[in-house]
Amino acid sequence: MSNVGERAEAAMAANDAKRSGAALLRATEMRRTFIDGERRLEVLKQATLTVHAGEVVALIGKSGSGKSTLLHLLGLLDRPDAGEVELDATPTAKLGEAERAALRNRLIGFIFQHYFLLPDFNVLENVLMPARLAGISAAAARGRAEELLEAVDLKDRARQRPLTLSGGERQRVAIARALMQRPRVLLCDEPTGNLDPATGTRIMALIFELARRDGMAAAVVTHDPALAEQADRILRLESGTLQLQAKRTQV
Amino acid sequence: MYVIPVAFRFLRKRPISWMAAAITMLIVILYLLIISVMEGFKALHMDSLQSVQAHMTVQAGSIARGMWHPEKWAAEVAGVEGVKGVTIGLEIPAIAIFDESRTIGALRGVDLDRELALGRMRELISPKDLSEFGVHDVGGKTLRGCIVGGMWKRRHNLKTGDHVTFLFTDEEGDPRPVAFRIVGFFEGKDPYYENAAFVDRSFLAEKLGIPGQAKTLSVWVAGDPDRPDLDAIRSKVKGTVDAAMARDVPHLKQLREVLEVETWREKGDNWYQAITRENQIMRFIMGIFLVFVVIIIMLILSRMVAEKVRDIGVLRAMGATPRGILALFLVQGLCITLAGLAVGLPLAVLLTRNLNELEKAFQVNIFPKAAFLIETIPSRLLPQDVALIVVLTLGAGFLGALYPAWKASRLDPVECLRHE
Fold this sequence. Notes:
The complex is a heterodimer.
Chain A: H1 3-20, E1 23-36, E2 39-52, E3 56-60, H2 67-74, E4 82-87, E5 90-91, H3 97-107, E6 108-111, H4 123-133, H5 138-151, H6 167-178, E7 185-189, H7 197-213, E8 217-221, H8 225-228, E9 233-238, E10 241-245
Parallel strand pairs in A: 3-8, 3-9, 6-7, 7-8
Antiparallel strand pairs in A: 1-2, 1-4, 4-5, 9-10
Helix pairs in contact in A: 4-5, 4-6, 5-6, 6-7
Chain B: H1 3-12, H2 15-50, E1 56-59, H3 70-78, E2 83-97, E3 102-110, H4 112-118, H5 121-124, E4 125-126, E5 136-138, E6 141-149, H6 150-156, E7 163-169, E8 175-186, H7 191-194, E9 196-200, H8 201-208, E10 216-221, H9 230-248, E11 260-263, H10 264-267, H11 269-307, H12 309-318, H13 322-353, H14 355-362, H15 369-372, H16 383-409, H17 413-418
Helix pairs in contact in B: 1-13, 2-11, 2-13, 2-16, 11-13, 11-16, 13-16
């Protein structure tokens, strides 16, 4: 990342912290290299990122630039070769798998391009799943799940299987599921990638609305410049580093 | 909390899981059916090995005057730990002469009251009223009663009230014919023991010219005759009798060598060994079938893991741990075997209790009655066999699931989410 970018990022972060609260998601100088046979592929070199409560950051870049890899690192699904991820001021580098899983369950909501709903369970059961993984009974969590389905306008589809829903409906279920545990961080990997533009716009609007309303720190990977412009900040991933793009300026 | 419902849901819609449960059920049923019939035959054979015999006999090879102090020795042997009681017996070979036929067998002198109290005679004789075993008058002639074996009854068409004369040699070697009246029959459960008759011991000893003497002490142990310390009791009885002989008839030291103490197992040693070994081998063979359960479950769950790679990634993203994923697939293996047990166990119990009815219904003759000397197919379902098959089946489910579950827990969540 360039010095200008670093200074700008730091300044914005300070201002944002004053405006919106503490930094909920912080990644510092992350490096990630993949080895494929004899080939070494350094996907991330010195990726640094801070996202505050109530802030939505868009991550853009060419295909293969490492956006999904970055998201996986931020979501504790993968470990960086160097660097650190902090979630809600909790350093994660030295945590074991069980602790990382507990943090993922409690603090992070994921929304994927292909929805990734569990086909053996109906809509309500899919939304309940994060709570069940946390050891909360279905009865105890049902109220919250129904409230979320109502928020995404799918309460009447609670008993249906995902296969019977449209793409947009499935993504709304995925959004409800991601918010089940009241996460502090929302990570979205091309959430509109499989949707038509109109539906995609509505889905992104929903994500932004819910993230800002609940004070989450949201990072959204997208190829769509129009959607990226709706974010508070736009960061471009290029050559393994994050370059700050000012909001609503150049993409 | 999520593992069991998620595991069950993963299995529910997969017909191959139900097939695996059905195969498990069949193996459980087969195992218990076959083992219960083997145990039934074992019990039957052991029953016939024991028959009307005592659990242990102390026997002299020959009769010598003054050799035996049966009442005194019987009392001493009765005091040995593990011994319930002792009866005194006298057995000789004899020719049995019926009204229209004759045969060779054994004539056994017993103290009937004691025999009825200690042994199984009461269970095996008919009619149950043996008041005519003692002396009674028939047409002015005093005749003793005798109880004849079932084999003689059937072969010579005998009934109570018939006369039989036994021809034997006395102590002096002279032939003695003695007439008896048949007052009852016994089913010895073994043809060998049914080629015989029971008569009053004192009367027989008098006719033999050895009043008050005997040839055998019949020893009855407490509890299960197949008790594990039977051989230890045997040793103690031998020691007691040897000591008694040395004390009471020291001049007959050389005869001590012909004293035999033999348990019912030793008398039917080949049978007993064969039956016991047969049962062990059959259990082992049936246990091998459970290896099929292990293999089937391993194949099914390996396929399930391959199908569920994406779902595993999603669950990990939502906070499932590797251990949770491991448990998820282990539980699936156990669910399959539990389903097989849940149906297989009650069906096995039902089938073992109705084998004979099933044989009739399907008009098959699995065990020809004449060849196997049975009236009905014996079966004996032991609680320990049921417990064993439950443990083995669940163990098979666990083992079969272990490798696929471990593989699933080791999957990289990022790779899972990228899985096509």
